[in-house]
Amino acid sequence: MAHFAQIDDQGYVIHVSVVRNQDILDGNGVESEEVGIAFLRFVYGPNTRWVQGSYNSRIRKRYPGIGMRYDAFLDAFIPVQPDPTWTLNPTSLEWEAPKDPEV
Fold this sequence. Notes:
Helix content: 10-25%
Strand order of the largest sheet: 2-1-3
Structural class: alpha+beta
Number of domains: 1
Radius of gyration: 16 Å
Number of helices: 1
Order of helices and strands: EEHEEEEE
Number of strands: 7
Shape: elongated
Strand content: 25-35%
């Protein structure tokens, strides 16, 4: 099964859909994100935006979840920021709490 995140104009995940492998195969029988997106646009409407993810986090760093944001520059799904004071680690793409200045 293939997994796709529907994203809004700001890149936030608003829906996650599972698509059968046979519905994402191109004319040569190869899995294609573009074919999957075309299938989902047929189902949900032509103006919807989709990005493929993966249940095992092999595609775009982690499985997409509602409220996450897809960052096209990093080509990754970014988790929800736990607190405005936390910063995103550019290597792990995980949010990190502020460091205690006295430590």
